[in-house]
User: What shape does this take?
Amino acid sequence: MSITSDAPVVRRPDPLPGEQPSAAPDLARYLLRLGDDALVLGQRLCQWITRAPTIDEDLALSNIALDLIGHARALLTRAGRLDGTGRTEDDLAYGRSDREFTNALLTELPNGDFAATVARQLAYTHYAVLSYETLAHCADPDLAAFGARAAKEVAFHRLHADRWTVTLGRGTEESARRMRDGLERVWPYTAELFEEDEVVRRLAASGTVPSPAPLRETWLGRVTEVVTEAGLTVPTPAWSATGGRSGLHTEEFGPLIAELQSVRRQFPGGTW
Amino acid sequence: MPGRCPVTAPTTAPAVDEGDLLAHFDALVAAGETIEPRDWMPDGYRRMLVRQIAQHAHSEIIGMQPEGAWLTRAPSLHRKSVLIAKVQDEAGHGLYLYSAAETLGVDRAALLDALHRGQQRASATFNHPALTWADTGAIAWLTDGAAVINQAPLCRTSYGPYARAMRRVCQEEAFHVRQGYDLMRALCEGTPEQKAMAQDAVNRWWLPAVALMFGPPDTEAGGADARTAALGAAVSRRAMAWGIKRHTNDELRQRFVDSCVPQAERLGLTLPDPAIRWNEERGHYDFTPIDWDTYREALGDDTHWARQRIAHRRAAHEDGAWVREAAAAYAARTDGTGGEDE
Assistant: This one.
């Protein structure tokens, strides 16, 4: 090995064919948001495993968590290449501070009881299928392929959420009450999923990725159908939460990230 | 090859002589045929199988806990994915095995109740705490490694549903062992602190694996005194005659030690047994015999962790009672299948 310079070698990401150079930082931020959603929700679902109401549910929830972590890995990897820093999936998952995560607040909400988790899954999965389907139509072939695959996987998670929403809503008096409480609890956090800001507007204007805002109507129609079948009503909260996309999180988020990163931070320079 | 005997139980077929049924059963086993749920079988055979399959199923479910506790802390997203998949496999193994047990006329809910009430037990291996990330590697490499050696012969066990469940289980377990070894290799090639963490985990998981995963000593050569060996051997002999087991506990234990020593050497880790050395004459590695004192020392019976494992399982079950009730009520109302019937 010949050493030509003492300067540290910074690995530049490979240029991506067909990529609009000016769109890359915005696209990176957008993909990071989706990746953080999947990572943080996957982390929350990991907290259920060995604690689910049945062993079948331990299996189902771990299956969903595994898919979510898979989506996070693909999205973070891509974001790290597009933002010009060359950061890996693990640099992004383990090397950022709480304030640098841009997941929607919905995904970080504590699990609560099983009904609250089902309500969170219902809101997220119906959103994520729509959001990944828009990616599936974007010009970048790799991203389009990822969007198509992820939309298919999340459609299974959506089926799981739909079934449980109806089962709990129409099960017993107690389960119906808990399902209603669960929906009330998570609903103020759903508006943020469809928020538009400068990043999203620029991406939409350049035709890179459509804005999530117009998806809200379809989303509401679909979840209303499920909630109605469950014999319940879609909540109409008087307030809605925001802040996740700009790194302003709930107080419960700090411990979640601390736990996620604890081993890796305890062994600086480690290889895993 | 003996023909099948379509008799479900002696009580439903009073005209058939039990001696003939037993002779037919013995002939099937001797011919290496599998016994199927509708075949007549001796009560002792059924009881031994239920006990063994339930204990195995419980061990899969309880065994999810020490590793499950590290899912949220896995130090890379790749390792996190691998660990989720492994814990998920264990839940799946528990389900296959409960289903196999159900073919013997017991139901899953009753088996889980027996576990929760302390009437049936999981392997005491999991009465040990997983204290560091390296423990997840040591568990996969050593205890799953022991499980593969223990369970490979069960793929040919005489009871059909058990043998078929074990074929799937063993394939996945073999994969877990390779992942565990790979995790340990990464730590051993990392910083000195990481390697120390790996060695510490091996120091704590070696004895639970080598002692508890194979059951108590059942030969004098394996370290049991004459009386214990006779007792253990009698149980093993019965299980072997019925084709449930194929080897003594001590034979399988030796096979495990023989496979682990070179692997530990390649990793640069020391197995915590100073007596381990190659015995040219025997063609095996010598190791400290697992006598009853060693076995009891490894048990970790009635400790904080033994209680904690069951308490954790029971809490999950009790917290989920309303969900199972809702699923049952919904299924009853719609004729659908709303979830697990417990």
